[in-house]
């Protein structure tokens, strides 16, 4: 596979703050690539440099074989950008919005209207954008980014502040976009989103990439216990601790959970005691990898 994006030793500072501190990665043609990190990790700044919206202090970016900075007009028709905040023209309908964006690239109205169908907004074409729901506005924003049929699409936290149903509906759209052969670069702090959508991810914090690879490979590389949960009250927590002294046992009055690296004998012992009511078994997830790398403290 050929590399659509090549980033090498990227740096960007604002005074003493190192927003991007030596970032390097590649994105292959047709790949769905995710950049993950807590608030302030440097995700958006990295993306803006790659898109050619910001000048790096040091390092290089190659985008479809070209440098995006200084602003490269040859790249603009080949990439679509959905920014973190929607910016629509006041008092225009959804149809008028997308036709306006499409006209910047010489795209005819008919083709722009077809994009509303692609993102499931054909029935909202004559509604003003300010009356649309959050999920519908995100779909319209993505439609505007796709109106000129770019081969590379950047999405900066497209599902932020959406309800669960709207998020999952948008996931289906993003899969379709990638399935049509487009390269997609996504920033998000929703770990389930990245695990579901991305072929590979890079986990960032404090301006650096801490780890990268396919989500499943990153999860397998984490030495994390299996979590076994049963309904609280099925067995006393003290008895469970005595049975499994090497496990971590917690009872929150709803579920009794057992974290163990030897799940088979634990499950067998619970079965022998007819204590499988409410049973659930789960392994490590991308969220566990993320927290292991970035820490658990809250950062606004």
Multimerization status: single chain
Please identify the top-level CATH class of the largest domain.
Answer: Alpha Beta
Name the helix and strand elements from N-terminus to C-terminus, one letter apiece.
EEEHEEHHHEHEHEEHEHEEHEH
The CATH superfamily label of the largest domain reads P-loop containing nucleotide triphosphate hydrolases
Do you know the CATH topology of the largest domain?
Answer: Rossmann fold
Counting H and I runs of at least 4 residues, what is the number of helices? 10
Q: Give start-end ranges of low-pLDDT stretches.
A: none
- The helicity comes to 25-40%
**Overall average pLDDT:** 92
The CATH architecture classification of the largest domain is 3-Layer(aba) Sandwich
**Strand arrangement, largest sheet?**
5-6-7-3-8-9
Radius of gyration: 23 Å
Sheet/helix structural class? alpha/beta
> How many strands, what sense, and barrel or not for the largest sheet?
6 strands, mixed
Layout of helices and strands:
Layout: E1 3-14, E2 17-28, E3 32-36, H1 43-51, E4 58-63, E5 79-82, H2 94-103, H3 109-118, H4 134-146, E6 152-156, H5 164-179, E7 183-188, H6 191-197, E8 200-205, E9 208-213, H7 215-220, E10 226-231, H8 237-243, E11 248-251, E12 255-260, H9 263-272, E13 280-282, H10 286-294
Parallel strand pairs: 3-7, 3-8, 5-6, 6-7
Antiparallel strand pairs: 1-2, 1-4, 8-9, 10-12, 10-13, 11-12
């Amino acid at each position: 596979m050929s590399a659509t994006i090549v980033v090498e030793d990227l740096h960007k500072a604002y005074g003493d703050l190192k927003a991007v501190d030596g970032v390097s990665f590649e994105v292959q043609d047709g790949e769905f690539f995710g950049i993950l990190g807590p608030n302030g990790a440097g995700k958006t700044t990295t993306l803006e440099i790659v898109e050619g919206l910001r000048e790096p202090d040091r390092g290089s970016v190659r985008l479809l074989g070209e440098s995006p900075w200084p602003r490269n007009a040859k790249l603009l028709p080949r990439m679509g950008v959905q920014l973190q905040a929607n910016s629509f023209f006041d008092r225009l309908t959804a149809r008028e919005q997308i036709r306006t964006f499409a006209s910047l690239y010489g795209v005819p109205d008919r083709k722009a209207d077809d994009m509303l169908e692609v993102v499931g907004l054909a029935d909202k074409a004559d509604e003003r954008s300010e009356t649309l729901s959050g999920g519908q506005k995100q779909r319209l924003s993505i439609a505007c980014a796709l109106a000129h049929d770019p081969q590379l699409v950047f999405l900066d936290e497209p599902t932020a502040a959406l309800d669960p149903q709207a998020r999952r509906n948008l996931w289906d759209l993003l899969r379709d976009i990638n399935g049509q052969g487009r390269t997609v670069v996504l920033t998000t702090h929703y770990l389930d989103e990245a695990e579901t959508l991305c072929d590979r991810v890079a986990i960032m914090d404090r301006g650096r990439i801490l780890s990268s690879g396919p989500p499943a490979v990153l999860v397998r590389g984490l030495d994390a216990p299996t979590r076994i949960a049963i309904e609280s009250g099925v067995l006393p927590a003290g008895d469970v601790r005595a049975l499994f002294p090497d496990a971590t046992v917690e009872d929150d009055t709803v579920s009794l959970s057992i974290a163990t690296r030897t799940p088979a004998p634990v499950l067998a012992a619970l079965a022998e005691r007819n204590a499988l009511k409410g049973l659930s078994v789960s392994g490590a997830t991308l969220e566990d990898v993320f927290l292991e790398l970035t820490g658990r403290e809250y950062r606004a």
